[in-house]
Amino acid sequence: MKKIIPAILISLFVIQYIEAQEESAEYEHRSFQFTFLFPPLSTNGAKNVRIVNDVSLNLFVGVSGGVEKFEAASFINIDQYYMDGIQVAGFGNTVGGHVSGAQVAGFYNVNGSDVHGFQGSGFVNVAGGGVKGAQAAGFINVAGGSLEGFQGAGFLNIAGSSVAGVQAAGFGNVSKAGETHFQGAGFFNVAEEVNDAQITGFINVADKVKNSQIARFLNIYDSIDGVPLGFISVVKQNGYRKFGFTTSEVQYTSLSYKMGVRRLYNIYSFGKPFGPGSRWMFGGGLGTEMDLTGRMKLNIEGTVHQELWVGNPVAPRFLFTDRLNLYNSVKFLFGWNIDDKMDIQIGPTFNVAVATTNPNTKQLSWYEIAPYSFYNHTSSNYNQTNVQMWVGLQGSIHFNL
């Protein structure tokens, strides 16, 4: 790496230097040139930076005014004005102006203006202007202007703006302005506007999303026309945010917070089931809300809760779960908006309790979740897993935030 970085800096310095020296010079055109090791040991001699070649072959390092068909070097190609055609280098390509065609290098491609075509390198591609085509790099792609095409990198993609661009990276994607079709990354995506989808392993951020956002942890946006899917989804303008209290045949009460959009929102809840004072439940799920008539709504929700012991003297820890004891529920809740700030809901639920019932694993007082059931079966596996089903009723009051 200590040798690689100076090589890139030297090539950038060379192109800046020759631009400064030859900025107003007119260039010649020749069909072919060959550079033995490095300038001026070439068939163009000391005039190489003023000459545009159809074909340029460089044994080690080549410097020319430009290329219109093909150029190759075992180490580095440097062109002052532009490159139209195909450019191949064992290490890097540097072009002061635009690129129209394809650049392929073992380590880097760096251009001062637009790229119309393809850039492929083992480490980094940089376009000072826009990219209309594709960039593919082992580590990072940068488009200083607009991206109209595709960026694929092992680590990071950056675009100054996007026109129907697509970005895919192992770590992150950034599009500062414009419309991006798709972003997919292992950790984060950032865009102004997303037309199709953002998918990431951790966080998505956008001003406006027209389709969907999918993140394992966090989605953040100003507004969305589609649906978000993640552990936390924050919508600033047209979001769905409610705090509520619920009671049912299983719990005295539970506190819930719902966030996302009406078409798909997340549910987080913590409740007090029947039993000792140290017995609680925590869980969450997903829901959707639909209009029926006037102020009447229908919410369909699916939740999963696990039994939790809080501060029980028998438990080895303050927060403790001694066994699998799940309360799974599908709810059909009919609601009425009392006003813009409050609504009430009531409706039937279909419930499934799943618990391990082997007495050898018992540490705390034994309580099943199901108050009654129309189905009750215990399997003959080691944990003697018990499944019970019943139909219940839930009522709640919610406050819009």
Description:
This protein has 401 residues and is mostly beta strands. It folds into two domains: 4-235; 242-400, Porin, CATH 2.40.160. 5% of the residues lie in helices and 66% in strands. It has one helix and 29 strands. The chain has one helix at residues 4-22, and strands at 28-35, 51-58, 61-73, 76-89, 92-95, 99-105, 108-111, 115-121, 124-127, 131-137, 140-153, 156-169, 172-185, 188-200, 203-209, 212-215, 218-224, 227-229, 232-235, 240-248, 251-261, 264-273, 279-291, 296-310, 319-320, 325-337, 342-356, 375-378, 385-400. The strands form two sheets. Strands 4-5-7-9-11-10-8-6 form an eight-stranded parallel beta barrel. An eight-stranded antiparallel β-barrel has the order 20-21-22-23-24-26-27-29. The longest helix has 19 residues, at 4-22.
Tags for this entry?
mainly beta; Porin; 2 domains; 1 helix; 66% strand; elongated
Catalogue the unreliable spans.
Answer: 16-24
Rg over CA atoms:
32 Å
List the helices and strands in order.
Answer: HEEEEEEEEEEEEEEEEEEEEEEEEEEEEE
Give the rounded overall mean pLDDT: 88
- How many separate domains? 2
Largest β sheet strand count, sense and barrel closure = 8 strands, parallel, barrel
Q: N-to-C terminal Cα separation, in Å? A: 53 Å
Molecular shape: elongated
Strand order of the largest sheet: 4-5-7-9-11-10-8-6
Helix percent band: under 10%
Strand content: over 45%
- Number of helical regions: 1
Structural class: mainly beta
Can you count the beta strands? 29
